[in-house]
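Recap from last week: sequence in, structure out.
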Amino acid sequence: MAHGKYQGVILAAGHGSRMGPFGDAVPKPIAPICNKPLLVYQLEEMRRLGIEDVIVVIGHLGHRVTQHLGDGSAFGVHIRYVEQEKRLGLAHAVGQLERHIDRPFLLMLGDIFFDSAGLDPMFDVFEEKDASAVLAVRMETDPAIVQLSASVVLSEDGTVRRIIEKPRHVPSLLRCIGLYLFDSRIFDAIRRTPRTAMRDEYELTDSIQILVDYEYPVRTADVTDWAVNITYIGDLIDCCVHRLHQQGRTSLVGEACSIADGTRLVDTVLGPGAEIAHAMTLERCVVLPGVRIDQGDYYRETVFTSSGQFCAE
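Predicted structure tokens:
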């Protein structure tokens, strides 16, 4: 258990632009996975680790995030909010936190949904190897998955040699999934991090590479059984269906829903207060709270919100 030796940080300022209009209406970090906001899963894991002091970095629709999470007491943690006023990348967001951080910290990207038996091995590696950073990684079989995140190349002694953000040519199928343990040396690296030419942002992976180049030990830990960066509408649906199957369900119906007789729900989640006005089939769908569906007979791979319906690509 981490107890009070560590702080927690969640980066929840992203816009979700690749989710289209859905991202304009719903902050990705509180997108519901089986009727529970994504960030709540992360807070629950931090609490399980004994981390009670959590900083949440907000930006796009930040007020919606604070409304959902409050001061964190409902989840057994204490939350402080820091606003990232300019969208200048993950390293910029972390760099803003230096005056708020007084010990090593567990960092989670706010769009990561993962299964894990526990992140404790990250802390074991961090302490036993005197690491400046530990990256949670997974060995993938599909290079396309790695191209959407970061590829990690290891040295013979198991330390990180290279980390490459969204590589066109994948040098390693070992993927960095967006969970990190850092000590204060990351702030020195961030100060030395240049903006990227491609996105004109400060990339956290570049900061980690600077740690490597300065010969600060950066280690890895394989701690997840399944992990998805929620980037597109289809990712949100995949996470809900995965969670349903974990629970041995084919559907989940929230409280106070109204469902017409003859309706079929296949791998589908209805949020509290949702209404299905006439018999239809919903397959691999997510219906947000309070949404009424009164047209159509069959929907697949669709997320329904009060502002419209959005189909997976």
